[in-house]
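Hi R.,

Here's the chain you asked about this morning:
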Amino acid sequence: MALTAHNPVAMAQDKAGNDTSFVVKSDSGSNVAADSAELNMVSDTDLADGEEVAVEATEAAGLHKELKTRFIEGSAGFMSLVALALVLGLAFCIERIIYLTLSEINAKKFMEDVDAKVEAGDIEAAKDLCRSTRGPVASICYQGLTRISESMDNIERSIVSYGSVQAANLEKGCSWITLFISMAPSLGFLGTVIGMVMAFDQIRLAGDINTTIVAAGMKVALITTIFGIIVALVLQVFYNYILSKIEHLTSQMEESSITLLDTIMRYKLERNAQ
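And here is the predicted structure, written out as tokens:
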């Protein structure tokens, strides 16, 4: 029995068995560790996504809060005037954009229809078409057709005169937009000057040049200037867009007037030939 206990073969088998059980245990432990790592990675990913959403929401709220804070810091009196200039200027811009957009038509197609009716001798149908069509082009054509029985000089004079009236209607309200474009930075500069005066008054009362006092006055002055310039830039963009639409409509009116005069001339020549 002593020999059996110290048998090398038995000892080797026992050692192999022990090693096998150790390996199995080690493998199961590795699988558990891998699963835990994957769960941790998923949790970290979800956490990162949640943090990004929270950061974006914080930035949006922070921008709104920052603008509100800067508005209050820039002296509510002058900042309110700058904001009022922005609101009124945008109101005039939106009104002009809507009016000009509704005034636009397909001028070439419209003039082709008018030309076809005039050549057919149906002047009343051409007038009805002009009355039922919106915009300055149709109005000018209607004025020319109402004087078709008169001389060409009178017709041309009537078209030119009424074209000037329609061009003035297109530019109605633009002077107010330019006023607010000029007022916004002027109000900002006024706030700057008053902020500097307030800073010097505080320095005089303190009896010493304190950087904190100077910085506070300068901050109010610069904030009003910045907001005034921003308002002027915004209104200037809308104003240039309005001018481009006015130029487009004016060119349509000129082209349509020339086309109408040619149509009326051909109509009169045909009538005289008959």
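One quick note: The chain is about 90% helix and 0% strand.

Cheers,
M.
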